[in-house]
């Protein structure tokens, strides 16, 4: 017996807002399969407002409302059964974040959950990594966002510890990450990875996905520390305009890709990892899985 459900996740990040629509394929006696059906990304960059001025600007409030209205229509067209919308550090730190969430609810009927950094890390860590990882190995999972980066240590297939740090691409672009925060991250990574003989990094986020695509590597094969360092140095040798015209990067990718690469390289250096795996997953995938497993558990109670 085959059953296909359609769920959606809205990920309201500091750099971009994403709508992921996925099919959940259920077959009796088999593990459910999660297949991406559609992904729409709108680069609103809320973090540029919030991290500098403390609130979301009038222009971006209007763009948010328009985007949510569009997402509502797309979900209706796709016949989405259930959805969940989560907002991360920009909405969390905006003085008018709650007010905007209420305005969106009133205008579009879309309820936004403004989640904490630790909850964000937990949703990402709960993403089913088992199809991407080797349960006999140890990994440091690094999910780089615009406002924060979530770090999770996975040993023998189990999550050991997870933490969110206010080091993100939009914050770094605006030069508002304190040296103490970097030092704190370095200490945390070293403290939680030093006990393992060998560790690999798993990277998620739009920037590392883009670098992986450019590398031409086969899915499942890692990028090396040497490759990422060379790519980072190459990026810095180009101006912002050249990164758009000569490297064919989108406008909203051409600036954040440099600080993002710096975060991944720092994580690799401090954990002693020589390889980084890029399985193309993130918060939106975690949200889809949380909707599914919450539904399953409530149906069995």
Offer a few descriptive terms.
301 residues; 11 strands; five-stranded mixed sheet; six-stranded mixed sheet; alpha/beta; 24% strand
Protein architecture, described:
The protein has 301 residues and is an alpha/beta fold. 46% of the residues lie in helices and 24% in strands. The protein has helices at residues 46-53, 58-77, 89-93, 97-108, 117-125, 169-173, 179-193, 206-215, 225-236, 240-245, 251-254, 257-271, 283-300, and strands spanning 2-12, 17-27, 33-42, 82-87, 112-114, 138-144, 149-155, 158-165, 200-204, 223-224, 275-277. The strands form two sheets. Strands 8-7-6-9-11-10 form a six-stranded mixed β-sheet. Helix 5 packs across helix 13 (283-300) and helix 9 packs antiparallel against helix 12 (257-271).
Short précis:
The chain is built from 13 helices and eleven strands. It is α/β, with parallel strands linked by helices and 301 residues long.
Q: Determine the structural class based on helices, strands and strand pairing.
A: alpha/beta
The strand count comes to 11
Count of DSSP-assigned helices: 13
Summarize the biggest pleated sheet: 6 strands, mixed
Approximate helicity band: 40-55%
Distance between the termini: 23 Å
Shape: globular
The helix/strand order is: EEEHHEHHEHEEEHHEHEHHHHEH
Mean pLDDT across every amino acid position: 93
Strand content: 15-25%
Strands in their spatial order, largest beta sheet: 8-7-6-9-11-10
Computed Rg: 19 Å
The parts where pLDDT drops under 50 for at least 5 residues are none
């Amino acid at each position: 017996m085959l059953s296909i459900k359609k769920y959606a996740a809205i990920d309201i990040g500091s750099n971009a807002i994403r709508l992921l629509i996925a099919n959940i394929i259920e077959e009796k006696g088999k593990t459910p399969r999660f297949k991406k059906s559609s992904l729409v990304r709108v680069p609103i960059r809320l973090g540029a407002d919030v991290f500098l001025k403390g609130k979301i600007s009038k222009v971006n409030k209007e763009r948010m409302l328009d985007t949510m209205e569009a997402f509502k229509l797309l979900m209706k067209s796709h016949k989405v059964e259930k959805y969940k919308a989560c907002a991360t550090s920009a909405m969390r730190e905006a003085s008018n974040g709650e007010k905007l969430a209420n305005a969106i609810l009133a205008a579009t009927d879309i309820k936004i959950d403004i989640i904490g950094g630790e909850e964000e890390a937990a949703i990402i860590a709960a993403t089913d990594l088992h199809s991407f990882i080797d349960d006999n190995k140890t990994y440091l999972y690094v999910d780089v966002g615009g406002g924060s980066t979530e770090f999770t240590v996975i040993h023998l297939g189990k999550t050991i510890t997870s933490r969110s740090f206010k080091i993100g691409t939009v914050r770094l672009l605006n030069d508002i990450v304190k040296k103490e925060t970097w030092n704190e991250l370095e200490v945390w990574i070293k403290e939680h990875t030093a006990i393992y003989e060998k560790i690999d990094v798993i990277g998620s986020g739009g920037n590392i996905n883009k670098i992986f695509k450019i590398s031409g590597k086969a899915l499942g094969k890692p990028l090396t520390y040497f490759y990422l360092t060379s790519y980072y140095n190459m990026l810095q040798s180009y101006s912002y305009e050249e990164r758009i015209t000569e490297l064919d990067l989108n406008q909203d990718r051409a600036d954040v890709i440099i600080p993002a690469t710096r975060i991944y390289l720092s994580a690799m250096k401090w954990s002693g990892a020589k390889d980084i795996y890029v399985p193309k997953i993130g918060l939106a995938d975690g949200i889809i899985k949380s909707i599914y497993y919450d539904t399953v558990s409530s149906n069995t109670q």
